[in-house]
Amino acid sequence: MSRLWSLIFYCVPVFATVTFLMALNGVWPFAACQMPPSLSTAGETIDGLFNGIHVLAVVILLGTGAAIGYVLWRFDHRRNPDGKAQYFSHNTALEFVWTLIPGIILVFLAFYQMNAWSENKMVRPTTMVSGIEQPTPPLVLVKAKQFGWEFHYAGADGMVETADDLYVEGLLVVPRGQDVVLQLESRDVIHSFFVPELRLKQDVVPGMRQFAWFNSNQTADVDILCTELCGWGHYKMKARLQIVEPAEFKTYVDGLEATYQPPLASAAKQPSSISVADAGGKRD
Ligand SMILES: [Cu+2]
Asked: pLDDT, tens digit, for every residue of 30-39?
């Protein structure tokens, strides 16, 4: 029986490595396991980090799988005269090594990811205002709720959470080639704002005000997903993100201002220049 187990332990990392290489090279059916092409200027850094850690994990899996398989095969009970498997309670040198190596790897990862984390989560983009560098104000206040997304655009005053905010549900339109800062809040439970193409994921926690930012160099029309299990309707908690040329974005916001109705009076109307037929909030 132990020989069978040793073969199984050999097979697991081999199978994992083969599927990993197939996914990496876009081979069916594992091609779908890859992240979609990046739309964000930060994509290259994040993908480099993601793939680097993935390769490291594959090497570790291969090493541990092979080690377990070898030990099961080599120290089989049939190789012992008394018919029992070899047994020892501990080995200080071995335990030191298998603690030290993961420790070194984790310290390495802590430094390796520092720049990517800092750029994407800590250091918010800045804007020059009257010659003074200031954090870029949020373009949109995103409110997550069971089970949809509200987008409150800064009105003429350029600030969110003021009386002239423009409210849209299920559709986020942003300009291409600019730093877009989002202010994220929740109306009820914990949600998570996720756009795989932007490599952007941020938990949205009740009572907290969080900021997320991105800069896309391409126009696009993609899904916004919730990746926190937030209730029975979690599966349908989607919205649409459209990244458009700056001129088109201006036309869109101007159109919102012209047609805007307070949310309590009626649903905000959409300008005709942007199709919202497949906006997440309506589609579901
Ligand atoms: Cu949710």
From this structure: 877 778 889 9
